[in-house]
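Need residues for this backbone.
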């Protein structure tokens, strides 16, 4: 712990280009000065425990409705993370990192395991008839 007392976190913070890293170094500087985590969080205007959700409860409900309606369309195709990212950006004006979309969906209770999509012109009767055709390898 003594080695941390010799580090000038404020000067390290001033050299950072990343806001996230700047905030971390400032938090460490305040901690080094003997402030509590609650005091540091109030001073830096951040949550002491975790970041609040980027989307409101209503926005998440709207997103869930969009996903459910579009995933169940009978005309084929499926939603991708990119589609959902675009929807969030265009509808709510909030920019998530594209990789975080899958984490958000998991937190909302969606599973990203999907079934194989159906082609719009796919015919169940033709598929069943095809299954009845004998193959050389059939007993």
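Answer:
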């Amino acid at each position: 712990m003594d080695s941390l007392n010799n580090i000038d976190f404020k000067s390290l913070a001033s050299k950072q280009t990343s806001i996230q890293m700047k905030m971390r170094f400032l938090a460490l500087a305040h901690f080094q000065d003997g402030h509590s985590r609650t005091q540091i969080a109030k001073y830096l205007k951040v949550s002491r425990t975790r970041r609040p959700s980027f989307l409101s409860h209503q926005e998440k409900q709207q997103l869930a409705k969009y996903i459910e309606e579009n995933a169940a369309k009978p005309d084929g195709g499926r939603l991708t993370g990119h589609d959902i990212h675009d929807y969030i950006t265009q509808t709510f004006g909030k920019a998530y990192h594209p990789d975080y979309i899958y984490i958000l969906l998991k937190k909302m209770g969606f599973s990203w395991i999907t079934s194989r999509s159906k082609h719009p012109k796919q015919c169940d009767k033709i598929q069943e008839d095809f299954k009845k055709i004998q193959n050389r390898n059939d007993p």
